[in-house]
Amino acid sequence: MNAALLKLLRRLVQKGTLTVIFSSGKKVVLGDGTGKPAAIRIADAEAERAILHDPGLKFGEMYMDGRVVVEEGDIFDVLSIIKNNGVQKAATFANSLVGLWHVLRQQMKSRLPVNRNRYNVAHHYDLDGKLFNLFLDEDWQYSCAYFHPPGISLDEAQRAKKRHIAAKLLLEPGQQVLEVGSGWGGLAMYLAEATGVEVTGITLSEEQLKVSRERAARRGLSDRVRFELQDYRTMQGRQFDRVVSVGMFEHVGIGNYGNFFRKMKELMRPDGVMLLHSIGQVYKPWATNPWIEKYIFPGGYIPALSEVLPPVESTRLLVKDIEILPMHYAWTLRAWRERFVARRDEAVKLYDERFFRMWEFYLAASETAFLYDRHFIFQLQLSPSLETVPVSRDYIEAKERELLEFEKTRSRLELVAV
Fold first, then answer.
1. What kind and span of H or E run contains 45?
2. Which part of the chain is the DUF7884 domain (predicted)?
3. How far apart are the C-alpha atoms of 65 and 234, rounded to whole Å?
4. Going by C-beta distance under 8 Å and a sequence separation of 6 or more, which residues neighbour residue 414?
5. Can the peptide bond before residue 310 be classed as cis, meaning omega within 30 degrees of 0?
6. Does the fold of domain 116-409 match that of domain 3-91?
7. Buried (b) or exposed (e) across 150-162, using 16+ Cβ within 10 A?
8. Nearest CA to 271 among 233, 318, 329, 310?
9. Which end of the chain has fewer CB atoms < 10 Å from its terminal CB, N or C?
10. pLDDT of residue 98
11. Would you call 214 exposed, middle or buried from its count of C-beta atoms within 10 A (0-12, 13-18, 19+)?
């Protein structure tokens, strides 16, 4: 048994009930006996040393490799106990130095002139589409849903998200809209069908580009919704009435926020409006969790608002509205995780057991970040113009009601067609 690791775990887990079975066979029950119990077994002494040395990276790796095995509960239950106690309690002088190295490494990478955006996007989004079909909603919305009213299904919440964003964009028929990071095309198609705008969606994922174009063609939208394999940084000579970006800003990189907002202003007409939807943190994090950065989102970074607003202000773009959605992504991730785990056999068949555990860990860790680290979604509405956006927010709810009626009418027509 690793005595130093046991000492660390005793200091860390003071609330809840976590049983740890060490490689020696010794069983230790940690915590105060409250809450839902969970138990893990560490398979070998080398895994124990790795977790002690670099817990932020190695605990996830050991779980992926089957060297940390959950004996009671699931990995979400284990991570919830750890996060609820505060992971900072696991800090030692040695692993703090390792953590500092991760921070410095990510800070340097984010400022390198080498463009790795295409690689970073492909790492995650060019996976087999059947994987995402295991857990996403019917429209393949891979970003935070909007559970308004509370208790609605994932499909309904994703429609509510698109409706909420469309309302904030103040769309009129015939306007030109740019979507930066267009995913599998669902939002672009919704905006075109619901409001009569023309949308250009740009992505760095060849797989998403292919799927988006196929979906638009099947829905007869190819003349109004176009998708391009395009880096926003190299777009030239084009301006749009509206710009929207959902779940893409997290991939921009810490050192590139000023360039991002300057480019968005350049791409907007003088009376334009932009809606930016992104994950945020309550404090400046300096770096992404090293396991997430290595295996899930290389180059990713979740900022504090204090890191976002200064580069916005430097462009003289006007902040017209900031909305915080504090729990909606936790609910979204729970729905994704439950769906994914329920289809474990299909995920394993697509890849393998290690890949399944990697994605299960990713979804569980992300959910706990919103529950215990107080991550949130912010929607930032920007414009170069003082007059374009109304002076009160009543227009948002009014437009949402109008869009909901469109959705109901469309559903009725589709039922009649069938």
1. helix 45-53
2. 8-85
3. 40
4. none
5. no
6. no
7. eebebebbbbbbb
8. 318
9. C
10. 67
11. middle
Looking at the domain 116-409, which fold is it?
Answer: Rossmann fold (3.40.50)
Q: How far apart are CA 373 and CA 66, in angstroms?
A: 26
Query: Between 2.160.10, 1.20.140, 3.30.1050, 1.10.1450, what CATH number should domain 3-91 receive?
Result: 3.30.1050
Asked if residues 126 and 359 have their Cβ atoms less than 8 Å apart, the reply is no
Q: Rounded distance, CA 30 to CA 19, Å? A: 6
Q: Global pTM?
A: 0.92
Interatomic CA distance for residues 19 and 7, integer angstroms:
14
Average pLDDT for 288-304: 87
Summarised one tens digit per residue, pLDDT across range 189-223 is: 999 999 999 999 999 999 999 999 999 999 999 99
Read off the pLDDT of residues 9-55 as tens digits, 9 standing for 90 and up: 999 999 999 999 999 999 999 999 999 999 999 999 999 999 999 98
239, with CB counted inside 10 A (0-12, 13-18, 19+), is middle
| Integer Cα distance of 109 and 251 in angstroms | 13
Give the DSSP H or E segment for 405.
Answer: helix 394-417
Structure-derived torsion over alpha carbons of residues 355, 361, 367, 372, reported in degrees to the nearest 10: -160
pLDDT band per the 50, 70, 90 thresholds, residue 410:
confident
Q: What Å distances lie between residue 217 and 211, 224, 390, 393, 415, CA to CA? A: 10, 10, 35, 36, 21
Nearest to 218 by CA among 192, 196, 189: 189
Q: Which two tokens stand for residue 16?
A: 């809840």
